[in-house]
Amino acid sequence: MLRFAATEADGGHDLSRAAELTNDALLRQLYLRHALDEHRHARLFRDRGLTLLTECQNGEASWSRFEANWFSPGERGLDDLRVDKDPQDGLLAFLHLSEKAAARRFCIYQEVLVSDPMTQSVFRDVLKDEAFHMAYTYKQLARVSPRRHGWRLWQARLVRVWKAYLRLMVAVASVIGTALLLLQYFLLLPPFALLAKRGALKEPPGWWTRRPASSLKSQY
Amino acid sequence: MKILGISGHYHDSAAALVIDGLPRCAVQEERLSRKKGDAAFPLAAVEWCLETAGLEPEQLDAIVFYEKPLLKFERILTCALRSFPRSWKSFPSAMKRALGEKLWVKGTIASHLRVPSSRILFTQHHESHAAAAFLTAPTHEAAILTADGVGEWATTTTGHGVKRENGETRIELSREIRFPHSLGMLYSTFTAYLGFPVNEGEYKVMGLAAFGKPVMLDAVRQLIQPTSDGAFQLNLDFFEFHASATKSYSKRFVELFGPPRSPDSPIALHSPDGERFANIAASVQRVLEDVLVDLAGRLHRETGLSDLCLGGGVALNGCANARILRESGFEKVFVPPAPGDAGCALGAALWADRIFFKRPHREVPDHPFWGPVVEARELARVAREDGLSLEEVEDPAQFLTRVVDALIQGKIVGWMEGACEFGPRALGHRSIVAAPAPVAIRERLNRTIKYREEFRPFAPAVPIEVAARYFELPPGGERLSRFMSGVFPVRAEWRHRLAAVTHVDGTARVQAVDPEMAPRFHALLKAYGARTGVPVLLNTSFNLAGEPIVNRAVEGYSTFRRCGIDVLVSSPYLVSKTAAESSVPMLEAVG
């Protein structure tokens, strides 16, 4: 829930930025309304999350241990929205798909949370707004790009897939990089670590006389 | 000579342009990218600076980065080695960050700006801080003290600067305290322990401290001890920041102070845990102040100078600054409007100009307004398009009267004028202003605009010539209050009339507004005072929680529409929300 709150709050910032950048008065109004909705959702999720955290005996430990949804945290983590760069219709297509995906997931959460009516009601509340967000983004996409809105939606879907692929590859590269660096750390560094530790023992505490400044051309 | 200064890659990136020895413009990347504390290479800020001055990159004589990347890398690597094998978790991420981007600053700058790499220079981090503090201050000779988390190796430096009549400038930083012994890291560790974001939540620790009692001084003093030569050292058994990328404090720290606060749980000040956290905040605040006062006092005795220039992120601690002024022996304390890393962009450029190129000193205009200028017509356009109530009042006196009317009615006003401030404080060009009483106005601001913790105070702004009437300012206090850098007691007889800006301990982080620096804002305070008898206004930064201070008119407008600000003004326009427009209207029909 807290991750949802963070994602919704981030979404709110992106939408307010979109409102600031657009020259279309109607879109500005809609984005601002949408931004307010996202902030309200963030509050709802956060409040419920905190209540659950308090109710949970070892709340903090279980929260920080592992996030099952690590690959797309907060449900929209696969998307890296770039409000400043995307064209108007591209942004609307992206928003429409994001809202649709989020609504689908929230719907599932709502259905499975029968044993927790309070949390269920949070999702129900949020879903009402998501329906509006889906509808307005689609309608405005059709208005802004009457001939190409279908293509824009497909383009946005492909971009989402591409971004998911990139994210996965970055994660894989990061794992490989970490493994290689750790290998070096344990195989190559120990003798240097010994020297560094011995050097540290010789360092006096307190003030150091500053070395004469090197040239500004030097990075060292 | 045209010199571009750049800071970045850690937090709060910025760019500043110095032409013929004077700042031409400066802006933090966050103000343009709209990402709070943006640490990315400040490309947008650089482009804006060049565009503002009408320059192409090849016309620059030098581009100065604010620290030395290889020296910094040496420190990161050495610290990883010294804490082997405990550093195994942080080593990969530290190396990836350094090798991925931070080490190649020269190449990054050369490729972005397409300038020969021979024109790219590097100052040391604390030299940049020292230059930002000393070269912008209206003083000819001063002691210099810089303190922050860490630069390359140094965390604290002392020295002194001279501007001679022939224009020659010298800054000598003679001594330094080295990482991991750092006042900034000490405070940041407590910031993390108290559940606030590091590099952002330090203000919260200071605000929270006023609610507590320093009853844990002995415990905090186990963490930081004086050395025989008058410096200090941290007891590293209590810290992890030097060996870990994610954790600041050790198990022993938790054994000493109890369980840390979860970032997600609210602080209930009257609960046992709330009191404990407030007491811890008060204790670390007191220890920080004691150490700084001691350092500054020794520096005063050594140099015999009357002026002190303070730089580095620690200089944002207004309570400590006020105590330094009162107790260290210095008559004047100068803190620049951007003492943190963003200000290093300007400091690096000025250092290169005065020290490296040996250009004669020129007095730097004593104001913080180096950022983009607001375009009031843009505000008028969007307000008209959205059908909001828009008034155009050409006569300046009438305009102020209309704003004061709104303030007297208890309305909250978004105030935008001129160039944006460089630095973290809103000093009258991008401010939210309101009446300084009653307390309810503070609660309303917290509830409907800032969405922040109840323990955080709001600051007052007052005309400099009457500041001492309302606040207990020691000699030199007006200077320290120029950029809101000091926290001083509100005079007891005025506290009830300044209830919204008086913190629980009876103090306020006051801004003494100089008419030469911010004439229109000063005139607003005078006009408000003429009508109410108290020329003091609550002044808080014009932003919502988690967002940077607004820059353009349309950003102010967007903020205005999303929160409880009643009136948005940018001379000569006033935009108001009527009851029906108090929030963005329902748009299901058009959606």
Concise structural overview:
Helix content of chain A is 75%, strand content 1%.
Structural class of chain B: alpha/beta
* Total number of strands of chain A: 1
* CATH architecture descriptor name of the largest domain in chain B: Alpha-Beta Complex
Work out the count of structural domains of chain A.
1
Strand content of chain B: 15-25%
Number of strands of chain B: 24
What does this entry look like structurally?
- The complex is a heterodimer of chains A (220) and B (591).
- Chain A is mostly helical and 220 residues long.
- Chain A has one domain (2-76, 83-181): Ferritin, core subunit, four-helix bundle (Ferritin).
- Chain A is built from 7 helices and 1 strand; from the N terminus they run αααααααβ.
- In chain A, α4 (88-112) packs antiparallel against α5 (117-144).
- The radius of gyration of chain A is 24 Å and the shape is elongated.
- Chain A starts with a helix and ends in an 11-residue tail after the last strand.
- Chain B is α/β, with parallel strands linked by helices.
- Chain B is globular and about 65 Å long.
- Chain B folds into 3 domains: 2-136 and 340-366, Nucleotidyltransferase, domain 5, CATH 3.30.420; 183-333, ATPase, nucleotide binding domain (Nucleotidyltransferase, domain 5), CATH 3.30.420.40; 371-581, DHBP synthase (Alpha-Beta Complex).
- Mean pLDDT of chain B is 94; it is low at 585-591.
- Helix content of chain B is 37%, strand content 19%.
- In chain B, α7 runs antiparallel to α11 (272-303).
- Chains A and B meet through α1, α2, α3, α5 and α6 of A and α3, α4, β7, β8 and α20 of B.
Keywords, separated by commas or semicolons:
heterodimer, A: 220 residues, mainly alpha, Ferritin, B: 591 residues, alpha/beta, Nucleotidyltransferase, domain 5, DHBP synthase, 3 domains, eight-stranded mixed sheet, five-stranded mixed sheet, 24 strands, 37% helix, globular, disordered C terminus
